[in-house]
Amino acid sequence: xxxxxxxxxxxxxxxxxxxxxxxxxxxYLASTRFGMRAxxxxxxxxxxxxAAEQAHKCGARVYLTVNTLPRCDxxxxxxxxxxxxGRCGVDALxxxxxxxxxxxxxxxxxxxxxxxxxxGVLNELTANALGSLGVSRVVLARELSLEEIRAIRERxxxxxxxxxxxxxxxxxxxxxxxxxxxxxxDRDANRGACAQxxxxxxxxxxxxxxxxxxxxxxxxxxTTILSARDLCxxxxxxxxxxxxxxxxxxxxxxxxxxxxxxVTNAYRAAIDxxxxxxxxxxxxxxELETVSHREYSTxxxxxxxxxxxxxxxxxxxxxxxxxxTVASVADGRLFVTERNRFCExxxxxxxxxxxxxxxxxxxxxxxxxxxxxxxANHPLMAVSMAFDGQAAPGAFLRRRKT
Length: 402
Hints:
- The mean pLDDT is 90.
- The chain is α/β, with parallel strands linked by helices and 402 residues long.
- Helices cover 25% and strands 24% of the residues.
- The chain has helices at residues 13-21, 45-57, 78-87, 98-107, 124-132, 146-155, 180-185, 237-243, 257-275, 282-287, and strands at 5-9, 26-29, 61-66, 92-95, 112-115, 135-139, 161-168, 204-205, 213-214, 230-232, 247-250, 296-297, 301-304, 320-330, 333-338, 342-343, 347-351, 358-361, 366-367, 375-376, 382-386, 396-400.
- A hairpin with a 6-residue loop joins β17 (347-351) and β18 (358-361).
């Protein structure tokens, strides 16, 4: 059985570099239009070509999301957009709309096509139908159980790859096709502008008592009745592989570069351990607790026994934060660019590829001019500290939040 592909998000150039540095086999990203994440910076056409070149030098593949559901006023822009994507050297297009799929197949006959999770592939009939239209991979609907995935694999053309999400935010709507944001915020979730109203706190208002906000249930806290827990399948990768999943996808194009690095690093270590017949290393499991996340669940993979809603007043859990990025190591000193405040005597952790985090205490902290300082407290300031190890340029340092 072929080793599953690890697919990481890249919302901009910094996050692309993080995904590649920490072990992604492929990245998915968007250009300036037709992508389901409008908030990240994404990649202009000239940047997209550079991103593809950078990934290919690292032996990784690049998948371009063209997965919005375009309206009639947008479709005239598609031909030139698709041709430009083809010239940029991306390896595949991720498409949700059948019309876009057929246009891409016509204009770019040699381009690999993946069916987005927005297509709602819940059975082998849809998977095989998409295969007959030229799709080489389907991104499975998130509502499937492991047994349903196994059935799809057994009844689907073996040439069609099966991709599934293993980590990240979950949408409360079926396969992401939600219109709550359209109604409440006039922001179209199906064109990348979701306002995430499922994460809002709700109260009940009785018609004849305006301004009196009642809890939907009596817990004394907020009522996030629509907010789903985050997905985390790092302990169950072997079960996914055995069910027939060929690509493991991490959600998070709007997340930080540190998030992409830490999560990619953890899943890289877990996949490599699985292929060696071993369990995921303990440090990789702990790593997923260091990034900002909601309570974890296993989604629909094992049925609904695993509670999927989160009712915490504060949806996000985050015990650690990015402190700095490594510039270089020379003459017993570590040179870094500060990202969040840290001080002399703090304990930082160095995150390197496929290795457990390396803790060390900040000693002899100095600014860019070599003057001793008590704290690094200006974003992006250059600082250095005593260091007796090795660190690759671009690696991340983090600190526990107080």
